[in-house]
Design a protein that fits this description.
- By secondary structure, the chain is an alpha+beta fold.
- The chain contains 6 helices and 9 strands, in the order E-E-H-H-E-E-E-H-E-H-E-H-H-E-E.
- The protein has helices at 58-68, 74-87, 147-152, 176-184, 197-208, 214-226; strands at residues 15-31, 35-49, 93-106, 113-126, 132-145, 159-170, 189-190, 231-241, 248-254.
- Strands 1, 2, 3, 4, 5, 6, 7, 8 and 9 form a 9-stranded antiparallel sheet that branches.
- Helix 1 packs antiparallel against helix 2 (74-87).
- It starts with 14 loop residues before the first strand and ends in a 6-residue tail after the last strand.
- The model has no long low-confidence stretch (mean pLDDT 92).
Length: 260
């Protein structure tokens, strides 16, 4: 059968990224407590396309997911990126895998268990020179209490839920659970899926005694990143979904460390 994709293209324009986007696929992710965790990911896979080639073979991306679905790890990420380059005759390959990750979390006083879901994202690039770039990213819900509101009010202070987005490059493997715990420890208080009355009292009072602006939270996370020799690069953003304003509060810091 005639292979249209392999025909020549005379427009002399290379394509930076071509492939498949937003394919949902079952995967297994490394789990610090339970070894592995099954989840469903949304996956983007791309390669570059030289100027003389008409198209890429889209079906091969899906075929290669069968190699990947057994386990998401640094090793498997590198392997599939190289396989993408080899199978599609590409100089570079790019892959993004976003998925919900579940951690059992007990209420602070009663110990009532519940599952918290965190959005996680792994991004990998295999460059033309053969080097591999990997980034781990977590989206962590948090709560914050406004220091200004607490200071000027005779009683109480406005509080809200927010989201911290932390991305890291690293020398050695970093557990998603460790990144999530680091972020939660930087907020006024963390968020739970199950809370009894005694737990609600605890988190309300704990947050009130630990008020933080988005500026405080983003700096606290950045300070911890800067103190970790395993982290070669990071970016962190904090968005508070304000409870008394018609806008969000936002802060962002990116590292000056060079990726390795």
């Amino acid at each position: 059968m005639k292979d249209i994709q392999n025909q020549k293209d005379d427009r002399n324009i290379a394509i930076d990224k071509v492939g498949i986007k937003s394919i949902r696929y079952p995967i297994k992710v490394l789990d610090k407590k339970n070894s592995v965790q099954e989840t469903v990911a949304s996956i983007n896979m791309y390669v570059d396309l030289p100027h003389e080639t008409k198209g890429t073979h889209m079906s091969r991306f899906v075929e290669m997911l069968h190699m990947f679905r057994l386990e998401v790890s640094l090793k498997s990420f590198s392997v599939i990126l190289e396989q993408m380059k080899n199978d599609l005759n590409a100089a570079s390959a790019h892959m993004e895998v976003m998925f919900p990750y579940f951690i059992e979390k007990k209420a602070p006083v009663t110990g009532a268990p519940g599952l918290m879901d965190y959005t996680c994202r792994l991004v990998g690039n295999s460059r033309a020179d053969g080097s591999i770039d990997l980034v781990s990213e977590v989206f962590v819900p948090i709560s914050s209490v406004c220091p200004c509101s607490k200071e000027i009010s005779e009683g109480g202070a406005h509080n809200q839920r927010g989201e911290v987005r932390l991305s890291v490059r690293f020398k050695k493997f970093v557990w998603l659970e460790d990144l999530i715990a680091l972020v939660e420890g930087s907020a006024s208080c963390d968020v739970y899926s199950v809370l009894k009355r005694a737990d609600e009292k605890n988190v309300t009072e704990r947050g009130y005694e630990n008020p933080k602006f988005v500026e405080d939270i983003v700096r606290d996370v950045a300070e911890k990143m800067m103190g970790d020799d395993n982290i070669t690069w990071y970016s962190v953003s904090v968005e508070n979904f304000e409870s008394i304003h018609n806008h969000s509060a936002y802060a962002y810091i990116t590292s000056g460390k060079k990726p390795v």
